[in-house]
Write a structure and sequence with these properties.
22 helices; Rossmann fold; 6-stranded mixed β-sheet; 19 strands; alpha/beta
Length: 555
Amino acid sequence: MRLWLAKHVKRGILRRFSLSARGVLAAARQIIDDEWYFSKYPSAAKSGLSAFDHYMKFGAKQNNDPCLFFWTQWYLEHNPDVAQLRINPFLHYLQHGGREGRNPSPLFDSKWYSDSYLSPEAQPVNPLLHYYLTGQAQGLITRPDLAIEAHRNGALQRTMAPLDHIRTIAQKVQLSGKTMFYHSPLQSCFSWLMARGEPVNEITTSLGAAIAREMDEVKLFARAPYHCYLNDATILPGCSTIIASDGTLLNDEITFVHERFGSSEMKLFDSNWLHNNDLLLKYTVELTPTLESGIHLFKEYEQNYFHFIFEIALKLYLIEREELVPPHIPLLIPNDLDGRLYDMISLLKHPDRRAIHLKRNVPYRVNRLFYMSDVSRIVDAYEGVPDESFTFMSPTLVADFARYVKEELGEDKNTIRRRLFLMRSSERRGLVNQRDVVDAILGEDFEAASLELLSLAGQVKVMSEASVVIGATGAAFANLVWCAPGTQVLILYPDHPLNNRTFWNRIGQAIGLQITYLDGERQGRHVGKYGMHDDFKIDVDIFDSSVRGLISGNA
């Protein structure tokens, strides 16, 4: 009987009808295993009955479990309508419950398993039956969080369904908003293109050559910046990884950082998991159109002002300045960015180029996708003391970009010299005595500025007029890029040994700023691996002395 069932599950015959009463008994007999059942219920082994017969005659009434993934009492408690019928709960699940999306236990997600592995074109076989007959031997996963754990342990082979497993419009509508997973080998986009003989283009202009030289000096990139077209690619807005036409996952940054630093640390640690050379991606099912063409413009932390400016805006500026893409090809960008980031996109893009706003973490297929490799690199550093190799922004590109933005906004000739304290309100790296710190310098003609309240143009104007800038480290300091050369900067940090100051140093080098740092006592709210994000308190007397030194040097 087991061979008959397994053979016909593979052929899809059982997917075309619900199990009959006879079929249910046959299925139950295949699932209930003597060895497992008797090890859990030793007294049953003494009855002289098979595990199946014992469960059918006595076990169900005693709330015994027929197998690892079906919990009899749990099923009855979570399905009171079944309990009221006083029928065998396991048989109910096999005949009706699995098809209705009921779970046999917390260890098995019927709907997720069916959606992930069973054919959407026909009525599926009972998911637990499918698992015991074929899925278990194939290493299929019984619930989504176990997919993540199996991947981390290296036990998940290529068993996750491909993105096009959900093929029909009706299926996508039914699953809309549900979380699914995609698992495939990871490769750099450049290597993938080379292996197929696809054309790869470098930027040969004077600006491109300068960026390439600066990249080569820091050894943070495998090669000079390049650009290409990918056919029949799939993108996930909010994620820099691209799914190639053959299903391979492409990401230059992850492959390089993994090879260079030996780190599997992911920027979106709750949506991406790396093990060896395999990547697991979490995505959301939605009914989406196929796009004819587009420019890939996504990065993991793109909603953060700092990361957007130095990982997205710099790239867009270079694309448009060097005229790398015809203006009829649209930008592909997420639909949930801050308005100031959209203002930056409008400022940088070709006036005839459209921007298509896409839903975050939802797959879109693009017939012809323009991809340009990264021109910046900001490595998350949670292990080891960070040095200048953890961050790269081309000084030539940063200075050229800043000059262009200030000219476009009419802020390139400001002579007003302001003293600014950048206010910070955040759940991480909060300056707990910020009010006392600000009060200590108000007599020195400082303004307390909350840049998050200003438009993009307002931020550029205020920062371009500054002679001194002080505040707690955070994304607002990305606006240092608008400052005039020679501006004095004091950045406050919690006193953590792994503080990463390399990005501010890179901006300072590109613009010509004078940057110093002052550490304060950590408050213990964030500890362990992420202790560098702890709240902190600055000694007001030391702060006052440091500020006076800045002012005297700026006079």
